[in-house]
Design brief:
With 173 residues, this protein is an all-alpha fold. The chain folds into two domains: 98 residues; 54 residues. Helices cover 71% and strands 0% of the residues. It is built from nine helices and no strands. The termini are far apart.
Length: 173
């Protein structure tokens, strides 16, 4: 019986730290729970907190915090934070760009996509490949882009598969 109870308690703890935090806990809102978990250096909680704030506010200070939280989640090892921050840094993503919360930074985005790809995030590998294909933040390297698109495809990215086929067809012509 102890093993079953411990197993159940472990499953509950894992569920909380893997962010199926949907309802209030001890009277706390989902955002408050995520704040606490993120402060405890839980990478996915930082990411989920960033997405929660991003979806609920367009205030400059809140959106600046979203960037910080994506960066923190990436640094702590959550690939989604790397991908989302990289995307913001390479696009004129509204409202971040409109509020001038950052400067476009292809070199930093390249490093973020690399990190996400190493963590086997399909979108990270696809975006990393695109950076090499178009020479953004690095020298253009079509062969490496092709290799990385294939890696993204093997990880399950439909975009990676499409990009691999497109680029391979272009090289053959």
């Amino acid at each position: 019986m102890k093993t079953t109870l411990l197993g159940f308690m472990f499953a509950v703890a894992c569920t909380l730290t893997t962010h199926t935090v949907h309802a209030a806990t001890d009277g706390k809102s989902r955002q408050e729970v995520l704040e606490e978990l993120c402060a405890g250096k839980d990478a996915k909680s930082c990411y989920e907190l960033a997405r929660t704030i991003e979806a609920s506010s367009d205030k400059r200070e809140d959106l600046a915090r979203v960037l910080e939280l994506f960066d923190k989640s990436c640094t702590l090892g959550y690939a989604g934070g790397c991908v989302d921050l990289g995307y913001i840094l390479t696009t004129r993503a509204k409202p971040f760009y409109t509020l001038r919360l950052y400067k476009e930074d292809d070199s930093r985005a390249l490093a973020l996509y690399y990190r996400a790809c190493v963590m086997q995030a399909e979108e990270g590998c696809n975006n990393y490949a695109a950076m090499y294909e178009h020479g953004r933040g690095t020298d253009e390297d079509v062969d490496l882009a092709l290799y990385l698109y294939n890696a993204a495809c093997e990880l399950g990215s439909a975009k990676g598969c499409d990009n691999y086929k497109r680029l391979a067809d272009t090289i053959e012509k």
